[in-house]
Amino acid sequence: MTLEETAAQTPELESLTEENLSRGLMVLANLDSDLARILETLGPPPIWSREPGFATLLCIILEQQVSVAAARAVFSRLCGVVVTLTPENFLRLDDVQLREIGFSRQKILYCRGLAQAIATDQLDLTKLEKMNETAIRTELKCLKGIGDWTVDIYLLMALQRPDVFPKGDLAIAIAFQKLKNLATRPTPVQLEAMTQHWRPWRAIGARLLWHYYLSNPNSP
Questions:
Q1: In whole angstroms, what is the distance from residue 175 CA to residue 119 CA?
Q2: Half-sphere exposure of residue 51, counting CA atoms within 13 Å on the CB side?
Q3: What sign for the dihedral angle of Cα 141, 146, 149, 152?
Q4: What would the 3-class secondary structure string for 115-148 be?
Q5: What digits encode the pLDDT tens for the residues 117-157?
Q6: Coil, strand, or helix at residue 82?
Q7: Which residues contact 88 (CB under 8 A, 6 or more apart)?
């Protein structure tokens, strides 16, 4: 089966499942010997899913440009204060409370903007789930503080789209550099170009790279 034939059998809105994860891994292993080596050495990567909705998108915003551990610590403290994390309940917290939880000034602005957009029906995350990737990207990037990386992670982990590739993700860039023995870390534009042949399974390629990265915790 050619890559084009595989793409034709992978509708854009199809969600990643254990079944098509296995299928995508086989395709990628045949396309890229380095990915085949990861699969042979480490086994298949986890699907790594998150529940779609406000709480997950807020958590991804917290993860922007900080370690996952630091972001999760802030998110955990938030959930300890707001037991039911809805946009309306989040908006009841003032700046002082949010700073005590660990929010930066920028993250307060971004997360409050997200909550406000949902609370006022400017953004409907449930309807978003049924849209194509381009429409989702356009809708979310209208909000301050939400860029391509945030949208990519939401599409990949919450909506389980099979061909999303977070080219701006640092861990993926580090893993790709090490895997391909590159002299310099690839830029997002270079990563995008060098992974085109992984389509329509780039989200699985991303998972393999994270899998590889996490197996090498001392990578630079």
A1: 39
A2: 4
A3: negative
A4: HHHHHCCCCCHHHHCCCCHHHHHHHHHCCCCCCH
A5: 999 999 999 999 999 999 999 999 999 999 999 999 999 99
A6: coil
A7: 115, 119
Q: What tokens does 150 get?
A: 């945030």
The tokens for 163 are: 């061909």
* Class of residue 31 by CB neighbours under 10 A (exposed 0-12, middle 13-18, buried 19+): middle
Task: Return the H-helix or E-strand segment holding 53.
Answer: none
User: pLDDT tens across 18-68, in order?
Assistant: 889 999 999 999 999 999 999 999 999 999 999 999 999 999 999 999 999
Alpha carbons 53 and 16: distance in angstroms, whole number? 18
The pLDDT of residue 190 is above 50: yes
For the full predicted model, state whether its pTM sits above 0.85.
yes
Helix pair angle (202-214, 170-180), 10° resolution: 80
Helices 18-31 and 202-214 cross at an angle (nearest 10°) of: 80
Quickly tell me which residue has 């590159």 as its tokens: 182
The terminus-to-terminus CA distance of the chain in angstroms comes to: 38
Q: Contact, 125 vs 57, CB < 8 A? A: yes
- What burial letters (b/e) apply to 39-54, b meaning 16+ CB within 10 Å? beeeebbeeeebebbb
